[in-house]
Amino acid sequence: MVNIALVGLRASGKSTVGRLLAAALDLPFVDTDELVSAGFQESTVTDIWRVHGEAAWRKAESAVADDVLSSEDQVVSMGGGMPVIPEVALRMRREQEEDRLLVAYLDVALDLIEARLDADGGDRPGLHGQRKPEDPSRVHQDRDGVYRSLADVICVVPVQEPAQDTATRLLAMLTG
Question: Which of 17, 120, 147, 165 lies at a CB distance of 3.0 to 4.6 Å from 105, suitable for a disulfide?
């Protein structure tokens, strides 16, 4: 077995779908955002960025990615910005070349991302310093090419599809 990494924008469902996928495969689930946050004293990502800055967060993400990708047989929710960190993308590609990593891109409709962020913005700072309604399209433009270049499978998530259905489709894509 190999690691399965889910990539995609914030609010794309990586953690929710990842947990369901891990349960279906009887594998542990790892949420890199939780691991990165645990390395700081602050209780929210917004506070971490305010106190330490984005660069410290990205450095911690890189270290967590390196550690997580060194393990095997798990489903990993990669933080939305992790794949755009050059050393993380390089490590992911190296793991893919060694047949130790499958990458699944959850390509979610931008209007669904916006609705999820509006409903529950969580504890994250605004992306690119913009207000949340403006974030998804700009961040999607910045990251979509990277996500696609890393993806072994692209799971397009239609609006209003239950997470269980997405996980079931993704499982079929990965195992079929």
Answer: 147
| Torsion sign, CA atoms 130, 51, 86, 104 | negative
pLDDT of 129: 43
**8 Å CB contact between 17 and 166:** yes
Is residue 150's pLDDT more than 60?
A: yes
Residue 42 phi/psi, 5° resolution? -70, 150
| 75-77: strand order across its sheet | 29-31, 75-77, 3-7, 101-108, 153-157
22 neighbors 29 (Cβ within 8 angstroms): yes
Domains of the chain: 3-165 (3.40.50.300)
Report yes or no: 32 and 77 within 8 Å, Cβ to Cβ.
yes
Distances (CA, A) of 141 to 55, 66, 87, 110, 134: 21, 26, 20, 11, 12
- Spell out the residues 6+ positions from residue 34 whose beta carbon is closer than 8 angstroms to its own: none
How far is the C-alpha of 169 from the C-alpha of 175, rounded, in Å?
Answer: 10
Q: ∠ CA 138-128-119 to the nearest 5 degrees?
A: 75
Q: What tokens were used for 131?
A: 């207000």
Q: What percent of the chain is modeled with pLDDT above 90?
A: 64
